[in-house]
Design a protein that fits this description.
Layout (H helix, E strand, L loop, with lengths): L3 H4 L1 H16 L1 H9 L4 H19 L11 H24 L2 H8 L2 H13 L5 H18 L12 H22 L5 H23 L8 H27 L3 H8 L1 H13 L6 H34 L1
Length: 303
C-alpha cells in the first residue's frame, strides 16, 4: 500500500517532461530549417518515423479501433491540425503573438472538459487556471502588439491550433477504454497524413537538405516526438483536463529559459515574474491532485 501514492506522481512527471521537451524543440527545428529542411518537411519526416513506431505499438491492438471510431477520428485530426497549424503559424507569423494565441488552449480545454466530460471547476482549479493564464500573459504579451485576438491568417492558424490541442486532450481523456499505444499511434498517422496532403496541395519541391540533416530529423522523431507524445497522452489520460492544462503551461517557462540559454534573447524581470506564476499554478494543481489521490486511497483502506 505504501507504493500507491508514489505511483500517482507519474502522470504529473509525464506532463512536466512533455512540457519541457516541447519548450526546447524549437531549437533543433530551427537548426533543421537553416540546414534546408523546412517545417512541413521536418514534420513529415519526424512523424513519418513515429508512425513506423506506431505500427509496432498497434500489434494485437487493431480491434480497439472499433470501440469508438468517430471519437478516434476526432482525436486524430484535432491532433494533426494542432501540430501542422502551429508549425505553419510559427514559420509565417510573429512568434510571440503565435505562442500567446496558442496558449489560450487551457481555456478551451476546460470549457470542453465541462461540456464533453462533465468536469466542474472547484476553487483550487479556478485559482490555478487564473494564475497560469496571468503568468502566460505577463510573459508573452506586449502592449504594443495589441490585444490577443487573431489579425491575419497565421494568427488564425495559431488560435485554431490551440483549439485543436484542447479538443485532442479532451478526446484522450474521454477514450479511457482505448489503450495509450493506440491513441498515440493514430495521432502520429494523422499528423503524417495531414503534412503529406498539405505539402501536395502547396506544391512544394523536395528540400535541398543533406542526408545528415534528414538523419537528424529522424532522430528527433524517434527520441523527441515519440517520447513527448507518449508522455502527454499518458498524463492527460490519468488526470482531469482542468489540471493537465495548467501543468502543460510549464512549457512557456521552459521555452523562455531555453531561449535565454540558446539564443541572444534576454528575459526581463517581468517575464521571470510571469514564469513564477505559472510554476506556482502548476505546483498548486499538482498538490491538489495528489491530495485527492491520497484521500481516495485513505477512503479505500478504511473500507
Amino acid at each position: 500500500m505504501l507504493s500507491k501514492p508514489q505511483l500517482h506522481f507519474f502522470p504529473i512527471l509525464s506532463l512536466l517532461f512533455a512540457a519541457a521537451m516541447w519548450g526546447v524543440i524549437w531549437y533543433p527545428l530551427r537548426l533543421l530549417e537553416e540546414a534546408g529542411l523546412g517545417g512541413l518537411w521536418a514534420t513529415l519526416v519526424m512523424y513519418g518515423v513515429a508512425s513506423v513506431v506506431g505500427l509496432w505499438l498497434m500489434r494485437g491492438r487493431w480491434r480497439e479501433l472499433r470501440r469508438h471510431p468517430w471519437l478516434l477520428v476526432v482525436l486524430m485530426f484535432s491532433n494533426a491540425w494542432c501540430n501542422v497549424a502551429f508549425i505553419l503559424a510559427v514559420l509565417d507569423g510573429q512568434v510571440v503573438r503565435v505562442i500567446l494565441l496558442f496558449y489560450l488552449s487551457p481555456v478551451w480545454s476546460i470549457l470542453l472538459g465541462m461540456v464533453i466530460l462533465g468536469e466542474r471547476l472547484d476553487r483550487v482549479t479556478t485559482i490555478t487556471l487564473v494564475l497560469a493564464l496571468l503568468g502566460a500573459a505577463v510573459m508573452l504579451w506586449e502592449p504594443s502588439m495589441g490585444m490577443p485576438w487573431p489579425r491575419d491568417a497565421s494568427e488564425w492558424l495559431a488560435i485554431s491550433s490551440g483549439m485543436g490541442f484542447a479538443l485532442a486532450n479532451v478526446m484522450v481523456r474521454k477514450l479511457q477504454d482505448v489503450s495509450i499505444p493506440v491513441k498515440t499511434a493514430v495521432t502520429w498517422f494523422a499528423v503524417t497524413l495531414l503534412a503529406l496532403v498539405w505539402l501536395s496541395i502547396s506544391g512544394l519541391s523536395l528540400p535541398e537538405a543533406s542526408f545528415i540533416t534528414v538523419g537528424y530529423a529522424v532522430m528527433l522523431g524517434l527520441f523527441g516526438v515519440v517520447l513527448m507524445t507518449l508522455a502527454v497522452l499518458y498524463g492527460v489520460t490519468h488526470m482531469p483536463i482542468s489540471r493537465s492544462a495548467v501543468i502543460l503551461l510549464f512549457e512557456v517557462v521552459v521555452g523562455a529559459v531555453s531561449s535565454l540559454l540558446l539564443s541572444n534573447e534576454v528575459i526581463q524581470a517581468v517575464e521571470w515574474f510571469g514564469g513564477g506564476l505559472i510554476v506556482l499554478a502548476a505546483y498548486l494543481s499538482t498538490r491538489s491532485h495528489l491530495n485527492e489521490q491520497k484521500n481516495e486511497i485513505a477512503k479505500q483502506e478504511s473500507l
